[in-house]
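hey
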């Protein structure tokens, strides 16, 4: 590039950045989309003529190549702390009192901000360039997700500031984008995200930034971590500073008393639906940054701030019926059928009533007006009945004693709380539930084959038993309602791929009573194929470590059943893998003799999965931290085990470090 071209290039980039800022941060575009696209394409054309001199922070360079071996761990120079929680005015007043003991009341002013329900993130800029974006992780070590954060258009790749700036904020998915994404996934038969937070996390943790770029993520920033070196003295000045860097800043309100702060929180509790993103509370912090430093930290959280958590959103609706759902093992679970009501981001139509005792205890009657909420913001549940609104003619609920699906008697098995339909082979519900289990993520992992699709396949007669899955074809699927080419093709591909799934998945998918995921893995390690397993008797099975008499008897019983044997034979003829690979049989014993404790939510694996992996590699997992613990594996929101580990000086590691350890690295 000539000097003149360099100048031109810089101007073109500045121009696009300016318009990105107007559009994505201020939401006040000056150009039409077409005019913007034209300038963007001109920049791309210019870069094509100078392919060796493209600037890394050019607006065209947001989407890079895929990360190959997962995300690298990133150590935060300043830890990302988590906040203590408050749930009531009393909690807030106690917090206020604790501050008044140490600083003059006249200096107490609070900055009250939205607590956005997203993913905590830290951005590190050096000499104006975005160097690293890392998730919070355990606060000390997070994951380097820079390549994905670069795709978020409201986050500038370069800022006008010499030196170092690190800011903390939240990556979230706007409600609209979330609804759109789920509608799209539904059309393709892909599993839906439970809430915008999960969708944001799933999108940010994609190894391929191309996918992240399509997910309409956004960010909001609220803390300058190196405030001193940036010359900031109050939370207001920090927010202004964030705004001056052209990053999207959090909205805040200054309150001079805790009661005023509380009133502001309560106002947003009721008005939060109006916001374009989900918030699960408000953050209240001392405005004065010098005072913040003076107060410092408690064991895990700063003393100068607190999170006010909203109670779960509750709505009132009518319970118009109670139906029974018959599970895979015949257990009858009562389900409340509700008049549809929109709660915390999605429409609720049904809520589990768990069992007979739950209904009796809450005296839930058909026709009642009930208050519903989401447990853990995901699972709908009935909190209580509004008895004042009950009409007098409503009678206590009588638990049916006949299976609604097959007409068999329901039986209360001795020593069990559950009521069951014993017609295991021919009860349609049980057959459907078995297929759903067979296709589930931990089993054959057939994406797109959830309960609704299985119902559809079963009721239309396309799939009456497991082997029928492998006889499905395009022509048959396209006769079904809501099945377009793409959805049918995806499903067929997923079914085909499952034929070569690992042996343990098949074993787990069979749904042998008492044989869970972990036992399935143990069996797959011991027996090189299904014939060998089927030939084993109770005594032989019991010789295996961790297989007791009960499990052994269930296994032998399952494989001696004529119907089961027949189905397995057919599945084998259809080409399903029933042998374990060398890798499955031999896991290197890399952590033999080591004891692990798991705490918090791990980024990729569930606790059960992590436990199984540790055990496969010779380690042990226990529930509490002691001097004998070798490692504590901490995910997001670790509990008291984390603090205990720190006190006892036990190494705390991330999921990524655990995986490296298991691999023997
Ligand atoms: Zn039944």
């Amino acid at each position: 590039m000539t000097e003149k071209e360099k100048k031109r290039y810089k101007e073109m980039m500045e121009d696009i950045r300016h318009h990105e800022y107007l559009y994505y941060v201020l939401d006040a575009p000056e150009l039409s989309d077409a005019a913007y696209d034209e300038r963007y394409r001109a920049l791309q054309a210019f870069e094509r003529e100078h392919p060796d001199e493209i600037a890394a922070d050019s607006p065209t360079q947001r989407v890079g190549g895929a990360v190959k071996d997962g995300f690298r761990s990133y150590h935060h120079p300043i830890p990302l702390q988590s906040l203590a929680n408050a749930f009531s005015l009393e909690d807030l007043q106690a917090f206020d009192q604790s501050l008044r003991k140490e600083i003059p009341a006249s200096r107490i002013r609070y900055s009250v901000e939205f607590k956005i329900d997203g993913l905590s993130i830290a951005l590190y800029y050096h000499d104006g360039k975005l160097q690293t974006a890392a998730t919070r992780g355990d606060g000390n070590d997070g994951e380097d997700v820079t390549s994905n954060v670069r795709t978020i258009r409201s986050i500038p790749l370069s800022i006008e500031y010499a030196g170092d700036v690190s800011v903390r904020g939240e990556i979230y998915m706007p409600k609209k984008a979330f609804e759109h994404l789920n509608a799209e996934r539904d059309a393709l038969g892909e599993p839906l995200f439970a809430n915008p937070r999960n969708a944001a996390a799933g999108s940010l943790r994609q190894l391929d930034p191309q996918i992240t770029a399509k997910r309409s993520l956004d960010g909001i920033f609220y803390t300058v971590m190196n405030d001193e070196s940036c010359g900031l003295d109050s939370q207001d000045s920090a927010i202004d500073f964030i705004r001056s860097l052209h990053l999207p800043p959090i909205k805040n309100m200054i309150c001079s008393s805790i009661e005023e702060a509380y009133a502001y929180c309560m106002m947003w509790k009721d008005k939060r639906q109006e916001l374009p993103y989900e918030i699960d509370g408000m953050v209240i912090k001392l405005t004065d940054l010098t005072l913040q430093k003076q107060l410092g930290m408690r064991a895990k959280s700063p003393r100068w701030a607190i999170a006010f958590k909203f109670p779960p959103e509750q709505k009132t609706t009518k319970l118009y019926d109670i139906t029974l759902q018959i599970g895979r093992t015949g257990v009858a679970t009562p389900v409340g059928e509700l008049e549809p009501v929109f709660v915390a981001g999605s429409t609720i139509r049904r809520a589990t009533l768990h069992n007979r005792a739950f209904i009796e205890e809450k005296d839930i009657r058909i026709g009642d007006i009930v208050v519903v909420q989401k447990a853990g913001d995901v699972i709908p549940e009935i909190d209580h009945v509004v008895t004042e609104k009950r009409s007098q003619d409503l009678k206590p609920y009588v638990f049916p004693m006949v299976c609604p699906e097959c007409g068999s008697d329901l039986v209360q098995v001795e020593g069990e709380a559950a009521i069951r339909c014993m017609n295991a082979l021919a009860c349609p519900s049980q057959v459907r539930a078995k297929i759903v289990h067979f296709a589930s993520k931990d089993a054959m992992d057939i994406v797109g084959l959830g309960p609704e699709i299985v119902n559809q396949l079963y009721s239309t007669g396309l799939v009456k038993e497991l082997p029928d899955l492998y006889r499905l074809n395009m022509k048959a699927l396209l006769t079904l309602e809501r099945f377009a080419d793409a959805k049918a093709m995806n499903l067929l591909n997923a079914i085909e791929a499952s034929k070569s799934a690992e042996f343990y998945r098949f074993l787990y998918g069979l749904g042998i009573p008492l044989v869970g995921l972990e036992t399935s893995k143990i069996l797959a390690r011991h027996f090189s194929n299904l014939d060998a397993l089927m030939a084993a008797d109770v005594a032989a099975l019991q010789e295996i470590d961790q297989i007791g008499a009960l499990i052994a008897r269930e296994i032998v019983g399952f494989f001696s059943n004529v119907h089961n044997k027949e189905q397995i034979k057919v599945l084998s003829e259809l080409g399903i893998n029933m042998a374990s690979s060398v890798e499955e049989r031999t896991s290197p014993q890399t952590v033999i003799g080591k004891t692990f404790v798991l705490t918090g939510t791990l980024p990729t694996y569930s606790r059960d999965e992590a436990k199984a992996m540790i055990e496969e590699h010779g380690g042990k997992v226990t529930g509490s931290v002691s001097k004998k613990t070798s490692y504590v594996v901490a995910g997001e929101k670790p509990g008291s085990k984390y603090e205990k580990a720190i006190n006892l000086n036990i190494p705390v590691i991330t999921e990524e470090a655990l995986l490296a350890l298991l691999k023997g690295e």
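The chain has a mean pLDDT of 90. The two ends are 46 Å apart (CA to CA).
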